[in-house]
Amino acid sequence: MKERLKRLFGARRRATRLERALGYRFRRPALLELALTHRSHRYEQPGLAADNQRLEFLGDAVLGLLSAAYLYEQFAERDEGALTTLRSQMTSGQALARLAERLELGRHLKIGKGEERSGGRQRPSTLADTLEAVLGAAYLDGGLPACRRIFEAVFAAALSGLEADRWASNPKGQLQEYCQRRWKSGPQYRVLSRAGPPHAVRFTVEAWVQGKPLGCGTAGSKQEAEAEAAREALRRLAAGPAA
């Protein structure tokens, strides 16, 4: 009877090693294959019409939603600032690269010969982007339920090493990581004024993010003024577009 059913409907495909590590078996394996296709491979293969960059874009949004929802449920006592810090750590490029290494994503990547020679298969940014692309592929394959399975199998375990107060004394570091994660570029600081006598000089500095001034700080040193500007920028970013 089983053999007859297999002939009628086809044998169920076995999960690959990577799928087992992800905790999810793709119904459309081609989506996972696309998620593992680096742009350098497509450039060397004229017949290929796409690479994983669009899936990376989609996966980034999915990861933001799932991590926010997970942290909201797991840390009911934490305020918005602490949750933002936790999410920043959990979804940073460095954290994603470490998770991708555990999954051995590099060995499954399809990359170009030049990229291979330059160490692209182990490059942290490439691994992080690929992991996001895998999430994007899972969303297209099975919606949010599929992505939750991967999130629980891969990402949730990373929470054990997170510290909500990691950036409490380093707002510039937190702003730098946030901007790098979201826009792939860091903030800029501009000195607006330097006033007062040499023994009591006061610096006023603005923090610019994506071409806009988001924070301003005044202190007795340039570094302290930058830190104050970064704190205000973080508050405005956490508050959202209406800030």
What does this structure look like?
With 243 residues, the protein is mainly α. The chain has two domains: 2-161, Ribonuclease iii, N-terminal Endonuclease Domain, Chain A, CATH 1.10.1520.10; 171-239, Double Stranded RNA Binding Domain, CATH 3.30.160. It has twelve helices and three strands. The chain has helices at residues 2-9, 17-22, 29-35, 39-44, 53-74, 80-90, 93-103, 105-108, 113-117, 124-155, 171-183, 222-239; strands at residues 188-195, 202-209, 212-219. It has a three-stranded antiparallel sheet. The longest helix is centred in the middle third of the chain and has 32 residues, at 124-155. It is elongated. 35% of the residues are buried.
Short description:
It contains 12 helices and 3 strands, in the order αααααααααααβββα. It has helices spanning 2-9, 17-22, 29-35, 39-44, 53-74, 80-90, 93-103, 105-108, 113-117, 124-155, 171-183, 222-239; strands at 188-195, 202-209, 212-219.
